[in-house]
Amino acid sequence: MKMKEQISIEEFDGKKFKIRTLEEDDNKKAVVTHYLHNYHNGVKKHYEKEAKIYLNEIVEYKNQEENLNIVSDIALQQLLFEVENVPFPTPKNYTFKFIDLFAGIGGFRMAMQNLGGKCVFTSEWDENAKKTYRANFGETPFGDITKERTKKYIPDDFDLLCAGFPCQAFSIAGKRGGFEDTRGTLFFDVAEIIKTKKPKAIFLENVKGLRSHDKGKTLETILNVLRNDLGYFVPEPQIINAKEFGVPQNRERIYIVGFREDLGINSFEYPEPFEEKVFFKNVKEKKVVPTKYYLSTQYLQTLINHKARHADKGNGFGFAIIKDDEISNSILVGGMGRERNLVIDKRITDFTPTTHIKGEVNREGIRKMTPREWARLQGFPDNFIIPVADASAYKQFGNSVAVPAIQATAEKIIDLIKSKL
């Protein structure tokens, strides 16, 4: 975005319309796209007042720039087309409504829409993740959920709150830890939204380490807040492994589900693992991948030396090569995330480097997985658009939830909710 005196002119959906926005007002596109996405239902009223102001700005700027005199209704229909003509539009006959917090690139949303859900609010602070989210769902997420300005855009009367919030330690003042003790953490903001909006159900996802974080005090406080302060039936959280739900990745995450007490739900069974097992060969690229994904001889030797040093100390750290009939290690951001998931692919024929490397391209066929392979490891279909550079793509998929595991659990939640309506 090019800035000029805190005013910018940026592309609206990359082509036909442009929007004039102040640098500090990142929510304009979110307001407009949320309004348009809810244009055919009652939720649009929640965004309508501000959205109409911003829509008028779009039309006014386009007229001035191109010396046109377009009718606002025509412009609105064009904008509606552009937010709805995306790979993963809202189901036409949706059966429940949800909000998507810490949305990333939309793993929760993908799962919920597959089950017939309608997203009425989403937030995500990372700009590159927002770009990917918009490309696939036609909606720009709101920004920082810790700000009251952002929270005010959350509508009432949605059924399910979804959040993959970060793990943070609490400053526990009391013996058990309660709502006030979580202030200053992102869980506090989630709890505050639950307290205010009172959704029928909640679905939280976090790293496996949450169970032992701060000697178990963090999880204990979360459960205490949900059960006693907020009044939700919360069964014992469960560790769910993505490899048991249709993707070849050893990825363990803790799932926490809850139901508002007045629904009368007092039991919940997490989904059973799928019978069919899949392996890396099921997600491997069908064609020869670009040379840039193959390791240089010098870098490969560095990894070999690094692993040997740790082996001498009795550690199991270092790179790992995943065979076609194996499942990958958990894909992670940073550290050895990519190096723990190398593969052998000897289909390469041109060893000419396409990027600046030290040494030559290795002749053993050792390469990194591609971003598309990481997308498949998380359960994203091949028509999921990846509009960002590789570095951002690896980060986004590494941070994402595993869609099939989320969907299998969410189906159980939704079935219970519907049984009480």
TrEMBL record:
<keyword id="KW-0680">Restriction system</keyword>
<protein>
    <recommendedName>
        <fullName>Cytosine-specific methyltransferase</fullName>
        <ecNumber>2.1.1.37</ecNumber>
    </recommendedName>
</protein>
<dbReference type="InterPro" id="IPR018117">
    <property type="entry name" value="C5_DNA_meth_AS"/>
</dbReference>
<comment type="similarity">
    <text>Belongs to the class I-like SAM-binding methyltransferase superfamily. C5-methyltransferase family.</text>
</comment>
<dbReference type="GO" id="GO:0009307">
    <property type="term" value="P:DNA restriction-modification system"/>
</dbReference>
<keyword id="KW-0949">S-adenosyl-L-methionine</keyword>
<dbReference type="InterPro" id="IPR029063">
    <property type="entry name" value="SAM-dependent_MTases_sf"/>
</dbReference>
<dbReference type="Pfam" id="PF00145">
    <property type="entry name" value="DNA_methylase"/>
</dbReference>
<dbReference type="GO" id="GO:0032259">
    <property type="term" value="P:methylation"/>
</dbReference>
<keyword id="KW-0808">Transferase</keyword>
<dbReference type="InterPro" id="IPR050750">
    <property type="entry name" value="C5-MTase"/>
</dbReference>
<dbReference type="GO" id="GO:0003886">
    <property type="term" value="F:DNA (cytosine-5-)-methyltransferase activity"/>
</dbReference>
<dbReference type="InterPro" id="IPR001525">
    <property type="entry name" value="C5_MeTfrase"/>
</dbReference>
<feature type="active site">
    <location>
        <position position="167"/>
    </location>
</feature>
<keyword id="KW-0489">Methyltransferase</keyword>
